[in-house]
Design a protein that fits this description.
Layout lengths: L2 H11 L4 H13 L3 H14 L13 H14 L3 H14 L1
Length: about 90
């Protein structure tokens, strides 16, 4: 388990206090953990927790967009493809 994964679990136990959540979102965007970030964004969407985890995805820059293109190329679920395309647009 990575440091960010541990922090997420700790924040979850604390019900994601705003200040800590905002710092976590910033750190997530500044990290190299693009796939983990994407998975958390999808989880947030699916669970309706509205943690605004996508707010820092743009920080992954070109690597983040390349990752999203790969997801888009390989995804079968139409809803997830639309969501991924939306995240790409938001990232630009």
């Amino acid at each position: 388990m990575t440091v960010l994964q541990k922090r997420y679990e700790e924040l979850k136990k604390q019900n994601f206090p705003d200040g800590e959540r905002i710092k976590f979102v910033a750190d997530l965007g500044a990290s190299d953990e693009i796939e983990y970030h994407y998975k958390l964004i999808c989880k947030d969407r699916d669970e309706g927790t509205n943690l605004n985890l996508s707010g820092s995805f743009y920080k992954h820059d070109k690597e983040g967009l390349e990752f999203l293109f790969t997801v888009l190329d390989n995804e079968k679920d139409e809803n997830l493809k639309v969501f991924t395309a939306y995240l790409m647009a938001e990232t630009l």
